[in-house]
Amino acid sequence: MRREILVFLAVSALVGLAAGMSDSLMANYFKEAYDTNAQQRGFIEFPRELPGVLSIFAIAALAALGNIKSAIVAQFLAAAGLVALGFYRPSFAGMLVFLFIYSLGQHMYIPLGDSIGLSLAKQQNAGFLLGRFNSLRMAALMVAGIVTFFGFRIGWFSFETPVTVFLIAAVLYLFAACLIAVLRRQIPERRDDGTSEPARVRFVWRKEYVRYYLICALFGGRKQIMFVYSPWVLIELLNFRADSMSLLAIIGALIGIFFMPVVGRLIDRYGVRRVMIVEALAFIFIYIGYGSLSRWVNMQPGHVVVLAGLAMLLVYLLNVVDRMSAQFAMVRAIYMRQIALVPEDVTPSLTLGMAIDHVVSIGGSAVCGVIWYNWGPEYVFVVAGVMSLLNLIVALGIRTADTAAAAPVAVDSAADADATAETRSGSGPTPTKKS
Question: Which of 35-44, 68-77, 309-318 shows the highest mean pLDDT?
């Protein structure tokens, strides 16, 4: 591999390790440190997900710095938020402020990381390379899960101040920032169109991208239920503690190490349409499972359930499959690059897509918290199942005409262009080469 790819792989590993030692534990942190209920849990998602909307303006404001420098800023923000949460326990309102700062850094890096990864990949192997990036991140999540599992089980970690695990994650984010700075010295900062000119502040909304925006909106609603209320079933209804959730993270990450490269190869071989259909179907079955589990727990006397044997295995399987389905996010990034009319639309469109995703997430989280609190958790998953069905309908509507106008981000030679055409021949006509 090229040296810059190896450096970016290391960045992906550090970011994954830091997320595994912070973001993956937030639900338990809210429950154990602040004793939140389901309705409060939904409210917390407003400051946690609002950065997903505001990041479009933050990235635009930093556009003159370029993607790589902006990614360094994102790592520093994430580290700063965690340092504040780790060194002292603020009031509930103060916790929301520092959670916002941490989340802003995380959300800024999502489209920036995708854009940097796509810029390092040639058109014909984008799925494969992004699969490798995500596979390494899953390996880092597994390592983080092992560390947190034994840390909480032995007593090294707790949510008492100082929250050591958050401070370690902050240091990892700072190391990631240093490696991104190394990456900046190895490759010139370029815009998405391949030029070395300073990036311009720009927002992109095109009618040709409406299907992409709709997919992002539906994903936002499903994702929030998946990230917030699926784990909350285990934490609130089944009393899973931080060590048990870490064990689930270990299992999910271990499978994800091998699963993500497979997803990348499937995208390259069968195209985004078929992979999106599989993703939507997977979510439908997941939410049927979670809804049935929630309903069953609520029917038990006193809502007290002790799982063992096959029942525990099924719960673990449901959670692991849920985690795997969440890793299909790179499908949307590749789809956006395929339908981009001009290469410089990619980064602002990925950022706008994430903003749409989070607008829906914020509203959906609050509404689902009210539904859970007043009517029961099973109805939250009914809503999620309906959105998954809509996502399936949208995915079925993706046709070859949607990819005909695709513009590659970087084609180094005529040979690369021919390879691109061969790779995409199964999902649409060869894109016209621009003069």
Answer: 68-77
Is residue 42 within 8 A of residue 365, CB to CB? The reply is: yes
pTM beyond 0.70, yes or no: no
Count how many residues are written for the chain.
435
* Separation of alpha carbons 85 and 208, rounded Å: 43
> What pLDDT sits at residue 310?
61
Farthest-apart Cα atoms in the chain, separation: 71
229, two tokens: 């209320």
**pLDDT, tens only, 110-161:** 878 877 877 776 655 666 666 677 777 778 878 888 888 888 888 888 888 8
Distance of alpha carbon 109 from alpha carbon 26, whole angstroms: 19
For residue 349 the two structure tokens come to 């469109």
Query: Across residues 405-431, what is the average pLDDT?
Result: 36
143 vs 13, 242, 250, CA distance in Å? 10, 15, 7
CB under 8 Å to 219, separation ≥6 — which residues? 329, 332, 357, 391
* Closest residue by Cα to residue 177 from 313, 73, 280: 73
Backbone angles phi, psi at 231, to 5 degrees: -65, -30
- DSSP-assigned letter for residue 238: S
Contact criterion met (CB below 8 Å) for 196 and 336: no
Other C-beta atoms within 10 Å of 413: how many? 8
Contact criterion met (CB below 8 Å) for 402 and 339:
yes
Q: DSSP letter at 428? A: S
Q: Alpha carbon of 189 to those of 44, 116, 179, 195, 349: distances in Å?
A: 37, 10, 15, 9, 19
- CA atoms within a 13 Å half-sphere pointing along the CA-CB vector of 228: 33
Quote the CA–CA distance of 330 and 279 in Å, as a whole number: 12
Segment 358-371 mean pLDDT = 79
Contact indicator for 296, 211 with CB cutoff of 8 Å: no
Domains of the chain from N-terminus onward: 3-187+204-424 (1.20.1250.20)
**How does residue 234 score in pLDDT terms, banded at 50, 70 and 90?**
confident
